[in-house]
Amino acid sequence: MNTSQTISQRRPAQGLLATHKVLRNTYALLSMTLMFSAACAYASMLLELPHPGLLITLGGYFGLFFLVNRFRNSAWGLVCLFALTGFMGMTLGPILNAYIGHYANGAQLVLMSLGGTGITFVGLSAYALISRKDFGFMGGMLSAGILVAFIASLAVAFIPGLEGGSVAIAALFVLLMAGLILFETSQIIHGGETNYILATLGLYVTIYNLFTSLLQIFGVLERDD
């Protein structure tokens, strides 16, 4: 066997090992960021901190999102990632307090949303991992859908009289986040995403949006009852 044949055989194996490393690092870091975010949310609830408002939340999120991407190849990327997930956890605490205080079964609604998020994430991730299907074709559709849903959510927040559309937007976000779980997991498996910090960021944001969207839907359904 000549040298060129040996090298050609090693490349697939090396690519597979690299993919497994990114996948392993991503899920390990995702677990840590989720626990850190949950701890920050719990601290925010105990301290009864007020919600900073939509503009500060968006400014903090996009600012830290930019920094994570900017420093993705250094240790500062990890610092910025934990800063972002901690910040989002702090903003989530007042929302959870509002649901628990407003609804008689508010804690149950939170647990239902948490359970729905966990089942959806684990189920879709497992499907992508086991089937090894390439969901890269969904990227363009998901990007367009998220942009439309984001603009619509801003319209509902700032334009009076559009509050009724919030449930439809939340339902759309649930579908989009489900698609993103398949897409982002597929990207890692097939080498489309090789940076575990960015992979973790994408999955964290997906899980966060899925949870808050389910919470909003359950809250509206409970109010209608």
Plain-language structure description:
- 84% of the residues lie in helices and 0% in strands.
- It is mainly α and 225 residues long.
- The protein has one domain.
- Residues 3-11 have low confidence and may be disordered.
Task: Produce the secondary structure layout.
Elements: H1 3-47, H2 54-70, H3 75-102, H4 106-131, H5 139-158, H6 166-189, H7 196-224
Count the DSSP helices.
7
Class inferred from helices and paired strands:
mainly alpha
Distance between the termini: 73 Å
Radius of gyration: 19 Å
Q: Label the overall shape.
A: globular
Low-pLDDT ranges: 3-11
Give the domain tally.
1
Brief characterization of the structure:
The chain is mainly alpha-helical and 225 residues long. It has helices spanning 3-47, 54-70, 75-102, 106-131, 139-158, 166-189, 196-224.
Features:
225 residues; mainly alpha
